[in-house]
């Protein structure tokens, strides 16, 4: 029993498209085409969901029951998925095989997309095709040079930014072709008419020092329906006949005849350039190689080879494809620029020449004294700046305490504080942002055409979409007669029904023109198409300013923020500067917020007013020193530390907050410099050689590094006067 139907899976780097191929009237034909569904092909769940969606849509369009769906599938994949051995690479096979297994489908074979185009372009009665194959992805493109039905070279490039024809020309120059390139470019993948126009308008010829084509190339864009037509022909040709005639062995006599005819055609040109001579030589070489072509070898089923020839039914006529898909425009990246290296210039130094004055003989007596003065003065006037980097003492202690505004004395569990109360009144006014939209919906008459040979019922409320993605609703349910075919005249008459639809929303933008095309959201265009019979009218829209719910929220939010700012300002103004506010004890009692307008009421502004009472606990003056001494005095190294209250952070976690007191835990965390007797250290290192002084410094407690700078280092002796030694103590290296 032969394969009477099979699925055709067209997989790209980020999408999948499923078509149904059937056998009837002595030929294979495209029964239906599902939508292209984007997915992450590296994600098994994503590609499975996308394949199932496209396959289900194709099955629904063909109106076949689930138990009669084919179990075989033919695959068309990117050429980059095929290894040098002619098999699908291991990483991609790990994507395809689990997908087919989960869908319960059996692979009947696969082809790469450019090989399928070569297969279809090379007609049995014509010379093998030569062209440029351009397959465009979202951020990359693959360019193939095809000469006489053979792929001479493939180049894949990635790009950033916008895709341009300049990228293609740069890639063509990398081919380093000795002959002039064939003036025909086939474009498909993520390409549209704008890409084709960009290629057509590019100056391919007439450039100085750049030559790719002898004349402007023909640019041909393959849409999805074109590709499906090409792919299924190529696959069925391979499955039925063991290969396209362009891949079969050519008899020697015919090869010589073809070669002579092509060479004669080239010699008849009025002007013959060096590139044209190369074309003749290339034609002779490729035609001679044509004699060595063998029929395509079958690949075992386990690695997705084609199903054996005897199990298939041979097609006799060309297929019919009725779908028309436009792939999305590509996203293009710009190539990064290489920053030139900075050339360093070698540094040179010329020593100045000194000219000494001539001394009289009686002046030589004072030279020893002068030398002594020169040697002693640096020692007398030298100064030293010494920075000591010491390891600080760290303190981190948490105690349970009660902050009490009624307490008098500090204890191990109670810290006396003060309480302050402040009353604040405030209001804010904001511009309203709410809008009330009023208007009418556009309506108009349409004709619905049924392309299927069966009656179709469309329920009331079905959604229609035009080219601008505007939605319309079917006012009443309709039944559309089936289409009919006249095989004698070769014509088909669609079933049709006139009805009235209305826009899904108000607005004049829904007043669409006559003869506009629409489509049903839930019915594929392969079965139903819609056209407007007259201009739509009645659509209108106007807006008025009003108070929105968000305006109320914004007004209350701004009012709360303003009350808080006023409270902080009042606290800072009214409280003594020596007091320390405990922010975690701030309590605010806000009164009811009053709005001068209601939600939905027409107005240009909204005013909110409220009154609040703020109370806060504050530390008493100089209490921080007492707290540190109270809770840290028994800690190790506290007595050896130079306590600076500003180096400590109090973190209060309130467990219970009442009107006059707060209970919780107080964390005291900070560091302090160790006590270093700098005066004694100055005396110990004064008049010492730097090496000896450094040894003394290293033995000073808690010092882990130091920085010693002298203004005179002739003898490496520190000043004899300790007052000329300046010491600074720090905890961190610069």
What's the CATH H-level homologous superfamily of the domain at 5-241?
A: ATPase, nucleotide binding domain
Per CATH, the class of the domain at 5-241 reads Alpha Beta
Low-confidence stretches: 242-356
Given the structure, what is the number of helices? 13
Q: According to CATH, what is the topology of the domain at 5-241?
A: Nucleotidyltransferase, domain 5
**Proper CATH architecture of the domain at 5-241:** 2-Layer Sandwich
Oligomer: single chain
How do the strands and helices of this protein lay out in sequence?
Layout (H helix, E strand, L loop, with lengths): L4 E7 L3 E10 L2 E7 L3 E2 L5 H19 L9 E6 L12 H13 L3 E7 H9 L9 E6 L3 E8 L2 E9 L6 H10 L9 E6 L3 H8 L17 E4 L2 H18 L10 H16 L6 H17 L76 H15 L2 E7 L2 E12 L9 E18 L2 E17 L5 E3 L4 E4 L4 E4 L3 E3 L3 E3 L4 E3 L1 E12 L10 E4 L7 E5 L7 E7 L2 H26 L5 E11 L3 E2 L9 E15 L3 H10 L8 E2 L5 E10 L3 E14 L3 H8 L4 H9 L4 E8 L14 E6 L4
Description:
Among the domains are: 5-241, Nucleotidyltransferase, domain 5; 249-290; 421-433 and 546-617; 442-533, Elongation Factor Tu (Ef-tu), domain 3 (Beta Barrel). Helices cover 24% and strands 33% of the residues. The protein is built from 13 helices and 33 strands. The strands form 7 sheets. Strands 13, 14, 26, 27, 28, 29, 30 and 31 form an 8-stranded mixed β-sheet that branches. α1 packs across α2 and α3 crosses α6 (224-241). The longest helix is centred in the last third of the chain and has 26 residues, at 549-574. The chain starts with a strand and ends with a strand. Residues 242-356 have low confidence and may be disordered.
